[in-house]
Amino acid sequence: MAPITTVHYLVVAAALFILGVIGVLTRRNVVIVLMSIELILNAVNLNLVAFSRMWGLHGQVFAIFVITDAAAEAAVGLGILIAFFRNKETVNVDEVDLLKW
Amino acid sequence: MQPVATTFFFYFLSALTVLSGVLVITQKNAVHSALALIFGLLAQAGLYLMLYAPFVAGVQIILYAGGIMVLFLFVIMLVNLERAQKEEQFNKQWLVGVLAALALGGLLVAVYLKGGQLFPQHIAQPVESSNTQEIGVMLYGNYMFAFEIASLLLLVAIIGAVVMAKKRI
User: Fold this and answer.
1) What is residue B34's predicted lDDT score, i.e. its pLDDT?
2) To pair with B169 at 20 to 30 A between CA atoms, which of A99, B106, B113, B123?
3) Which CATH class is domain A6-90?
4) Does residue B115 lie within any of the structural domains?
């Protein structure tokens, strides 16, 4: 078989990214939408670490910062979910329509 | 130490990651999605190990799989998802969404196929025994400002999450 080059890792990261985008665009459950966003962030991380093998450790440092930001964003997003669920008793994205005109 | 069976491990771990990604977006039960995502994160940590990034792999396992996903599971337990499981899982625009995402995927694949020879074939193998020390030197050297901003961001996120989830402010 062909040796594993960087492009192999990029294709895997692209597949994860597309799966995350499909999850964000099609699911109605807010928790699963948030988990699809985590999939997208993981795809970006894989891209960064794959490129850092060629061009120095900057990619890995960036990946660590992305993981930190993902943690902060997940915490705040889940806090918003809890606050919304307390008011409306639903986790359906279609029912988040208080600002609709 | 010489890498062994690189091809097999790459395809095996990539298949696990992509399969768990598919399971995340298609499962009806949110706990099943969370468990599939944990599995995918662990497989991705294996991919990081293959890319000579042991520190990022460790951070992924401890922080992502052991912190963020546990937070997700706690919130799934707090939020009552019984009724959401019986409803329709995919929204009305699912076909347009899938087509748009596949168009984006086709664009990415075209870019990789055309530009595949732009990447140098021989990759300098970084020393993995001093990976953590070198990342530490970079974090406290070049990226000191970003490091401090990241800690400030985490503080703001903690305060924000507590305020959002409180019953009475």
Assistant:
1) 95
2) A99
3) mainly alpha
4) no
**Same domain for B62 and B9:** yes
Give ipTM to 2 decimals.
0.91
Q: Does the global pTM surpass 0.80?
A: yes
Q: What is the pLDDT of residue B70?
A: 95
Count CB atoms within 10 A of the CB of residue A67.
Answer: 20
Task: Decide: B122 and A53 in contact? Cβ < 8 Å.
Answer: no
CA angle A51, A57, A60 (to 5 degrees): 70
Amino acid occupying residue B122: H
Q: Is residue B17 part of a domain?
A: yes
A42 → closest Cβ in B41, B97, B160? B41
- Residue A51 to residue A7: CA distance in whole angstroms: 10
Would you call A69 and B150 a contact, using CB atoms and an 8 Å cutoff?
Answer: yes
Do the domain assignments include residue B103?
A: no
Specify the pLDDT at position B122. Answer: 57
**Number of neighbours of residue A59 by Cβ within 10 angstroms:** 21
Pick the last residue of a domain from B24, B53, B84: B84
Interfacial A residues in 14-53 facing B (CB < 8 Å): 14-23, 25-29, 31-32, 34-36, 38-39, 42, 45-46, 49-50, 52-53
Domain boundary among B64, B84, B104: B84
Which residue range is the domain that position B160 belongs to?
129-169
- CB distance B25–A19 less than 8 Å? yes
A78 lies within 8 A of chain B by CB:
yes
Residue in chain A closest to B154 (alpha carbons) equals A72
In this structure, what CATH number is given to the domain that contains residue B58? 1.20.120.1200
